[in-house]
Amino acid sequence: MRLEKTLTSLLFPLMAFLCAFQPLSGIEVEERAPIGTRALPREERRALQQQCLMMSQKEGNKEALEEKTLPSSEMNAKAYVTTHDGVFHSPYKSGFVIIFADGCVEWIGDPVYSLNDLSRLYPGSIFISWAVQLEDGSIWEVPYSDRYRTLDWFASDSLIVVPNDSWFSSYDYKLVNRNTGIELKSNLVLGPFVNGYYTHWIMSISYETREVVLEDNSIWRVCGWYQDILNRWMPGDVLIMGINNSPFSMTLYPNILINVDDNAYVNCRCIY
């Protein structure tokens, strides 16, 4: 009897442990666009991004003053503006994402375990973090300490991606849940599914007029201060649409396009 109780006391925690680590959807093998295949080194890229941002803010401030449309200090920062509906994303799943060298992805939904636990369980992985997957297949890392804040997100929620312009942050973007108001710092770790239904990519570029044509035939004009970043882009690059949250430049260029291959974004607007 005592032996039976001992075995039972050992068996149930083991079963609970194994069940907790069941993946959300097994190992995913669908190909995603890799991040930063032509990216500048991080510090150089962040410096260039900040320089473009500051110059675009000055331009936006000057034109707003000329037109007497300077944003009010009472402007609601959450009143985002867009020129294309593709900026509205939805959360497909959240959990621990385990990425392997061959590009395969596995998800673990239970938030109680530590990153060290998962590192020991998946010694062949190259990346482990709590993350959110959007409808296009792109995967966004969020801070481990914020993992519980994603558990009440629904597939029907509306998410947008905005820049995180804090120079001292290690996160380039923020995911904003428009239904709950929650904003989470985030980094893009894997791009959208290759040739996916919700995936956007560049069909052609005019560097002179700063116009980018996408696969949905939309035409985007890029802010002139982002020319140096635009010059690095090429047809075929995969893009993710977001919103410009800078209070001065957003009136002229309310959107951003994030280039997955270059791992950088530009302020822009959709003109057709």
Query: What coarse outline follows from CA principal-axis ratios?
Result: globular
Specify Rg, calculated over alpha carbons.
Answer: 21 Å
What is the strand arrangement across the widest sheet? 1-3-2-4-5-8-7-6
Q: Tell me the distance between the termini.
A: 77 Å
Structural class: alpha+beta
Task: Kindly report the average pLDDT value.
Answer: 84
N-to-C series of helices and strands: HEHEEHEEEEEEEEHEEE
Q: Biggest β-sheet: count, sense, barrel?
A: 8 strands, antiparallel
**Portion in beta strands:** 25-35%
Q: How many DSSP helices?
A: 4
The proportion of residues forming helix, as a percent range, comes to 10-25%
Strand tally is 14
Spans of at least 5 consecutive residues with low confidence: 1-23, 61-77
